[in-house]
Amino acid sequence: MQSALSILLMVGLVAFFRQGAAIMAGEWSARMYFAVVNNDAAGLAQMIADGGDVDQFYDDVTNVSSRSLLHVCCGRGHVQCLSSPRYLSLTPSIHPSPPHPPVYSGVTPALVCASTGDLETLRPLLQHNCCLTTKGSVYKRRRRLEYSLDPFELAYSEGFLHLCRLMVDAGYCVYGLRDSFLGDFHRQTSNPGEQTTHTNAHQDPIVIPIPAPASSGQNMANAEMPTLTFGHAQKLPDDWLDILLWLISKASNVRSLKEEAVFAVRAIIGHRLPDCIDSLPLPKLVKDYVMLKNLRLDDASAQHHGLFGKPK
To answer: Whole domain around residue 195: which residue ranges?
Structure first.
């Protein structure tokens, strides 16, 4: 009889302590959530230092794409919280590939940034090696259609060309998109079958051949292929033509050896890039290149030389 009572007592104590731990975990989770919502970077950094779990998932009614603290951060544009020490390094949802679990419906934090056009929020994600190739579900209320797009495709279709340029500078490959870029250039500027010369911000003449329209047979063959276009974008930046020409150039030419080396190192390291780079015996300049420290947020009138080009 006493042994049975002892067992019941032990079970009760274990349940009590588990319930207490769950309550404490819930309080920590709520405190971290409200720190992100209120953009309290100092409070978030302190909770992370005290052992707070950044891999928390929430239902944020004000942001339907929110699934994790990082989604909440990106949806609200709270750059200060993103800059909290080690926050991005500890967040699995920034790089949703094995061994990390996939995010809900493919909606990565980078896709959230692409939907809002937020350059400042996207930049630290890119520097921490976020995934740019995961396609997520995007619902367009105006057209009542659901698309599966990656962050670059979404930003381009919405006309956020500065985000597109930033993603290409961070390693997004556009080799297969040349015809889409040329198609937009043709629809906006010239007649088919011509060559047009455009002078960019540096007064360098760029000759762009505009392809003639495809035959009806080719059009039918390509009818089922999705076309990347910003034709439905509500607003384009003032320097959209310069950016489009830059994208055409990137899609038409191979990357430099230095770029390929940097992007290869980043691809091999994958998640937790800053911690790995800090531990390597490399010169600071090389570490800065790999961490994309030169990745700049170009404003609408800024001259752009690319990640490894001349300084502005």
So the answer is: 174-215+227-248
**Cβ neighbours around 17 below 10 Å, total:** 10
**Residue with token string 């709270």:** 78
- The CA–CA distances, whole Å, from 31 to 69, 141, 160, 193 equal 11, 34, 34, 61
What span, in angstroms and rounded, lies between the C-alpha atoms of 270 and 187? 39
Neighbouring residues of 89: CB distance < 8 A, sequence distance ≥ 6: 128, 272, 273, 274, 275
In tens digits, what is the pLDDT along the chain, a chain of 312 residues? 556 556 555 645 444 444 443 334 446 567 777 777 777 777 777 777 776 666 666 555 444 444 677 777 777 766 666 666 555 655 555 555 544 445 556 678 888 888 888 888 888 888 888 888 888 877 665 555 667 889 999 999 888 999 999 999 999 999 888 888 988 888 877 554 454 555 554 444 444 444 444 443 333 333 333 467 776 676 778 888 899 999 999 999 999 999 999 999 888 887 778 778 888 888 988 889 898 888 876 543 334 444 444 433
Cα 71 to Cα 15: distance, rounded to the nearest angstrom: 33
Q: Give Cβ neighbours of residue 40 (< 8 Å, ≥ 6 apart).
A: 34, 81
192 shares its domain with 168: no
**Rounded to an integer, what distance in angstroms lies between the CA atom of residue 209 and that of residue 182?**
8
- Residue 286 within any structural domain of the chain: yes
Alpha helices by DSSP H, listed for 92-158, are 109-116, 119-127, 151-158
- Total number of domains in the chain: 2
The token duo for 32 is 């971290």
Total count of residues recorded for the chain: 312
Query: What is the rounded distance in angstroms from the CA atom of residue 194 to the CA atom of residue 162?
Result: 27
Task: Note whether 210 and 238 are same-domain residues.
Answer: yes
**What's the whole-model pTM score?**
0.69
